Description:
The complex is a heterodimer.
Chain A: E1 12-21, E2 24-34, E3 39-44, H1 50-57, E4 65-70, E5 73-75, H2 80-86, E6 88-91, H3 103-109, H4 117-130, H5 146-158, E7 164-168, H6 176-191, E8 195-199, H7 203-209, E9 212-217, E10 220-225, H8 232-240, E11 258-267, E12 277-285, E13 289-293, H9 300-308, E14 319-321, E15 324-325, H10 331-336, E16 339-342, H11 357-365, H12 379-392, H13 409-421, E17 427-431, H14 439-454, E18 458-462, H15 466-472, E19 475-480, E20 483-484, E21 488-489, H16 495-501
Parallel strand pairs in A: 3-8, 3-9, 6-7, 7-8, 13-18, 13-19, 16-17, 17-18
Antiparallel strand pairs in A: 1-2, 1-4, 4-5, 9-10, 11-12, 11-14, 14-15, 19-20, 19-21
Helix pairs in contact in A: 3-4, 11-12, 12-13, 13-14
Chain B: H1 2-31, H2 39-57, H3 60-84, H4 89-108, H5 133-138, H6 142-160, H7 162-172, H8 174-179, H9 184-210, H10 222-232, H11 237-259, H12 267-286
Amino acid sequence: MVQHKGAGAARLELRGITKRFGSLTANDAVSFAVAPGEIHALLGENGAGKSTLVKGIYGLLQPDEGEILWDGQVVHPANPQEARRLGIGMVFQHFSLFEALTVVENIALGMERGTDRKALAGRIAEVSRAYGLPLDPHREVHALSVGERQRVEIVRCLLQSPKLLIMDEPTSVLTPQEADRLFETLRRLAREGCSILYISHKLQEIKALCSRATILRGGRVVGSCDPAVETARSMAQMMIGAELKSLARRKSKPRAEPRLTIDDLNLPADGPFGVALKGVSFEVGAGEIFGIAGVAGNGQNELTQALGGERQIWPGKAVRIDGRSVGHLNAERRRLVGLCGVPEERNGHAAVPDMSLAANALLSARNRTGLARGGIIRRQAAHGFAERVIREFGVKARGAEAAARSLSGGNLQKYVVGREVLQTPDILVVAQPTWGVDAGAAATIHQALFNLAQNGAAIVVISQDLEELLAITDRLAVMNEGRLSRALETTDATIEEIGLLMGGAHGAPVETTAQQGSIQNVA
Amino acid sequence: MIDTFVLVIATVVAAATPLLLAATGELVVERAGVLNLGVEGMMLIGAVTGFAVTIASGHASLGIPAAALAGAATALVFAVLTLTLMANQVATGLALTIFGIGLSALMGASYVGTPVAPLPKLHLPGLSDLAVVGPLLFGHDALVYLSVALTIAVAWFLKHSHAGLVLRAVGESAESAHSIGHPVIAVRYLACLFGGAMAGLGGAFLSLSYTPMWMEGMTAGRGWIALALVVFGAWRPWRVLAGAYLFGGVTILELHVQGANGIGLPPQVFSMAPYLATVAVLTVISAGKWRGRLNAPASLGKPFRPSV
């Protein structure tokens, strides 16, 4: 299993790393090696132990057993400072940036104390220019786009001349153009001898970027491969350890009367960091799945809230269901006229973490499925409904009385989507249906959306995952700075065209890339 | 006329100093992301301890550090409860105030009515003798200068030192600070202790200088004004300094209005003024285009539990 590339010791070698949390073994005797200058992918489903493993390398967790070898020497990084001193840098999936601080202050926080901030600002400008990552050291982070924020994290690592860079799902928040720029930077770093450990769900990216992949399942290494010779499908099957179900794609129907009509929807920004919606208009017909793409923070949250009823709109005719104005109705009353919604955030928004699954079912499904007639809770019925969601959507949970917080992210997402789908809505609005969800669970969720559409519902999917939208939608449009582009037929749309509508690479001229034509989806 | 003016300004400075000390301390605590509502209690403990030690030893130079230590010790109770044992910060802070009122009354029972010599005014040869400017700027006691010096030090510390940057980072996002390897809980402990010491000093100023004696509940709500001041000053030391002197002025105005009958307003209106001003400022900076400048630390009052 342990690979040695070229002469000499590997840059990083793991030998039998084991980490337990109570009765759960997150990493079970994991061994692999990364050579100098190698871009090494770490693949696995949710809960396969990827994050735990890299946290161990970066000193955020201490493995219970096993050895970490760094350039042939055994090391035990006790905290991130020690790991950084060795030359290990990490870019987090959820950025560890401070919104109210400037770029240079953010970076100074990751340095040894006594760093002169003026000199540091100069070095930031220098490094960011050298690697084609334009950045103004004195801007406050909340004013930066997501792509620029990631640059801050990368520049922070680069300033310490790392020998190993760990990247945890770096492209999930980027436009295709921004992702391409990132790959250029990573390839250049690798040429200069820096090793890169790359975690991603996007198998196409791994094929394009990585020279070696280690696959984790259930905390163990189950294989390694050369991504260039594998297909995305074969790697996905290694990850889940089973045949990937193919989606039963529906036949497109001739467009029917629009069921959901959004007509010149305007909404002021909510708070200093919110986005105002400006003249958003689109229609979704019966049996149609309509996609809304865009980089996070361009008004998708506001649109989700306006569609689902979390924010009401006056006059109400901006949102119409079967011709009836519903914009002024709140979420519960919209549910009663047939519109259900799945917000983006699972814990604390779509579900109450400390309440049971049955109680969470009651919160949204009580009226449409008669779980609380006359204001009195029918405990048995709620329990039965929750059990049905768990059964039909293959949710891994201890039963209807399990607390929502005890479910993994992917399982809770299946439960939340299932709870809304089983209310048989006429219109379903779903935000990020498969965010952080592994390939198996994603297929389940997509199939449920297909079936719902097949039965005549109109579905709006708001997602940052372009491959997902291209795979499941009939038409799609792009949000940029609160405005919605014209709708494209999904079969005619190219990644490049959509990327341009997203606003291209922020703060840089848009470059044409090799990523043209239609992209094959994993599923 | 000029003499009256100088006298009034001197009383304004005296009224502002305990507010400034306590508010600057609380500002540091809140910038680290901790909301300690026990300022009133910590001030009272500081006031009675400073008084008792000064009486027992005969030296205010021992009483003042003792007050700071007592304030810090009270804050330590709060820190252990909220940072280590994860108790709710709001409830614990309120309890700390009630606890401080009771404990200080118990500790000070035998000192009620005992006189103490007020802190000596510093005399700077030449400067203090200047007309008008002398008594205005150079005729106060040591705690007054200390309060201004500490505020300047805190402003510099937060903006220019690495440790101050770490403290702001902890208050902004404890999770992020933890993930890049900063000791969140330790930083918050130190901030709490500093805040307690500053509140203790504020209390000592009341019992040793402002009204040199001990009375139950002698802070009379100044701890709450200090808390309001931090918000009023939008968590910035310089604005807190300005706010402390403004609120100090309002307090003095209240006294003079009570004395004079010319104005038709009841004195209670002036007692309300600091709180009304805080509400007004909050409303203005929370609304519309000012909202982004509210500047509240993003993790304020949120407990931090490091993942295993």
